[in-house]
Amino acid sequence: MLVAVGSLLRLGLGRPVRCARGTPLEVAPPRVARPRPSGLPRYSSGGTPSGPGPEGSGKVHRVPAEHRPSQFDKKILLWTGRFKSMEEIPPRVPPEMIDAARNKARVKACYIMIGLTIIACFAVIASAKRAVERHESLTSWNLAKKAKWREEAALAAQAKAK
């Protein structure tokens, strides 16, 4: 098929061909359909098989477009705001709706975790400031713990010596 683009003609395959202006566009030979292998099914633009193939003529196998949601899926559909109550959820829902609800719930859970992490950071900062005011540190705790262990070891050695 030829398409005029300025002084270029573009073939259906995407290759431009130079020609003079005013040349008739009907210079291309008509398209000839290529024969297809006989063992493969042919599909029309509608997506249904036509012609001989593994499926019988007129018999179309349809992939189910409905999904029966579990209780967890129903809770996700409620939490993401797809439905207002459990009674509103139909017995069968499109799988795309469930996938979209799961993705939205995943994003909400990530936002909640980010918020909790920020709150925990501020809590640690506040407790560390209070510990500094009381003159507490990990070093002082370690020294006190080791001193206690030395005293216990000394008492255990005296008990053995007796």
Number of strands: 5
> What best-fitting shape do the alpha-carbon axes yield?
elongated
What is the first-to-last residue Cα distance? 110 Å
Sketch the topology as an H/E string, one letter per element. EEEEEHHH
Uncertain residue ranges: none
* Radius of gyration of CA atoms, rounded to a whole number: 38 Å
What does it look like?
The structure is a single chain. The chain is mostly helical. Among the domains are: 1-26, no CATH class; 71-157, no CATH class. The chain has 3 helices and 5 strands, in the order βββββααα. The protein has helices at residues 71-79, 95-133, 138-161, and strands spanning 2-5, 8-11, 16-18, 42-43, 49-50. A 3-stranded antiparallel β-sheet has the order 1-2-3, with no helix packed on it. Helix 1 (71-79) packs across helix 2 (95-133). The longest helix is centred in the C-terminal third of the chain and has 39 residues, at 95-133. The mean pLDDT is 78.
Summarize the model shown.
The chain is mostly helical. The chain has three helices and five strands; from the N terminus they run βββββααα.
How is the secondary structure organized here?
Blueprint lengths: L1 E4 L2 E4 L4 E3 L23 E2 L5 E2 L20 H9 L15 H39 L4 H24 L1
Antiparallel strand pairs: 1-2, 2-3, 4-5
List keywords for this structure.
single chain; 162 residues; mainly alpha; two-stranded antiparallel ribbon; 5 strands; 44% helix; 9% strand; elongated
